[in-house]
Amino acid sequence: MSNKNDTERREASQQDVREAVKTILTYIGENPDREGLLETPDRILRSFEDLYSGYAIKPESVLKTFKDGSEEVDEMILQRNIPFFSMCEHHMLPFFGVAHVAYVPESRIVGLSKLARLVEVFARRLQVQERMTTQITGSLMRTLSPRGAACVIQASHLCMFQRGIKKHHSDTITSSLKGCFRNAETRAEFLELIKLDGIHTII
């Protein structure tokens, strides 16, 4: 019975989305019943299910950990240039770029593909870049209990390209440094490895 109720609620919610898209099309001066727009509500619905799929995934579930066999694991693990696309929660316009994610393990480590997957989980939501940066390090700290975690995101925001100040050649860099990455030496090593400097750190 519960599954049936869940299905009915989901179908009702999907229909609400379709009707909302038609309302928006009418608001901007379009005719939602013209041929080229007849399937637009369904297309928008499917795109939303992809763009915002991160809400259905618990970040910790993608960080399958295992203990390293060595007696001491104390070196930085870094994955650079992880591409992502996300949607700004202020205007629901895209922002996109790359994330650099690192951690220094205490004992537990994850496969490198899991770092990219973690970025994807948080990117597939309505976001602000600053929060996404800290969510990534926070999830690593909670799940792996590492000595430290770091994330730098460099992104371009279409809300700055298409509206407002219309600055076409600017990007935004945010960083979050936790644990041992707040140590000057570890931080310097991390920034040297990703070849960025002058970064404003979000504590």
From TrEMBL:
It comes from the Bacteria. Residues 18-194 form the GTP cyclohydrolase I domain. Keywords: GTP-binding, Hydrolase, Metal-binding, Nucleotide-binding, One-carbon metabolism, Zinc. Zn(2+) binds at residues 88, 91, 159. InterPro entries: GTP-CH-I_C/QueF (IPR043133), GTP-CH-I_N (IPR043134), GTP_CycHdrlase_I (IPR001474), GTP_CycHdrlase_I_CS (IPR018234), GTP_CycHdrlase_I_dom (IPR020602). One of its GO terms (molecular function) is GTP binding. The keyword DNA-binding does not apply. It holds the Pfam family GTP_cyclohydroI. GO terms for cellular component: cytoplasm. It catalyses: GTP + H2O = 7,8-dihydroneopterin 3'-triphosphate + formate + H(+). Its EC number is 3.5.4.16. One of its GO terms (biological process) is one-carbon metabolic process. Pathway: Cofactor biosynthesis; 7,8-dihydroneopterin triphosphate biosynthesis; 7,8-dihydroneopterin triphosphate from GTP: step 1/1. It is an enzyme of class 3 (hydrolase). Belongs to the GTP cyclohydrolase I family. Homopolymer. This is GTP cyclohydrolase 1. It comes from Sulfidibacter corallicola.
